[in-house]
Each structure stands twice: as structure tokens, then as C-alpha cells.
């Protein structure tokens, strides 16, 4: 059995956090852009309805999940396969 060093664990956790940031970026950026556009619209029309800012964000995030879903799934699957391969290497 191969011993696991602290550097290996730090690398795995760092890669995991990086994957989380990359995979969540399309949804977060979409929500940010839609929220900005809606807030400009609300400021221009002086309409302060809560659902006016919530519903477009939900729709935008849903569309971004549909559009970027295959890419996100591929990223997550690749990371999971790398992690499983590393576990197999360590257990040998």
C-alpha cells in the first residue's frame, strides 16, 4: 500500500474546489447578468416587485444548465475517474 502525503490530499482538495468553481460558473454568471439587467429595468421603471427579480434568474439558470449540462457532466465525470484511478493506485 502506498502512503498518502499531505501534499497529495491538498492537491485532490484543490482540484475538487477548482472543478466546483468551473462547473458552477455558467449558472452564477447567468444569474449575475440576468440580475443586473432586471435591476436596471426595475430602476428605470421604478417597479420594485420581488418576483420580477427572482423568476428571470431561475429561468436563466435553468437555461444555462440545459445549455452547459453536457460540458459540466463531462468535467465532473473526468474528475471522478481521475479520483477513482488515484484511489486504485493508492490501494495497490
Question: Which key features would you list for this structure?
Answer:
single chain
Largest sheet: number of strands, sense, barrel closure: none
Low-confidence stretches: none
Number of domains: 1
- End-to-end C-alpha gap: 5 Å
Which value, in Å, is the CA radius of gyration? 20 Å
Shape: elongated
Q: How is this structure best summarized?
A:
With 92 residues, the protein is an all-alpha fold. 89% of the residues lie in helices and 0% in strands. It has one domain.
Report what the structure shows.
By secondary structure, the chain is mainly alpha-helical. Helix 1 (6-45) runs antiparallel to helix 2. The chain contains two helices and no strands. Helix content is 89%, strand content 0%. The chain has helices at 6-45, 50-91. It has one domain (24-91). It is elongated and about 65 Å long.
List the helices and strands and how they pair.
Blueprint: H1 6-45, H2 50-91
Helix pairs in contact: 1-2
Amino acid at each position: 500500500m502506498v502512503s498518502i502525503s499531505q501534499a497529495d490530499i491538498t492537491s485532490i482538495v484543490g482540484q475538487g474546489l477548482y472543478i466546483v468553481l468551473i462547473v458552477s460558473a455558467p449558472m452564477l454568471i447567468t444569474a449575475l447578468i440576468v440580475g443586473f439587467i432586471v435591476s436596471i429595468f426595475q430602476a428605470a421603471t421604478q417597479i420594485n416587485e420581488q418576483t420580477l427579480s427572482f423568476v428571470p434568474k431561475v429561468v436563466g439558470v435553468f437555461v444555462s444548465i440545459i445549455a452547459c449540462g453536457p460540458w459540466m457532466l463531462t468535467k465532473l465525470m473526468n474528475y471522478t475517474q481521475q479520483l477513482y484511478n488515484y484511489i486504485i493506485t493508492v490501494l495497490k
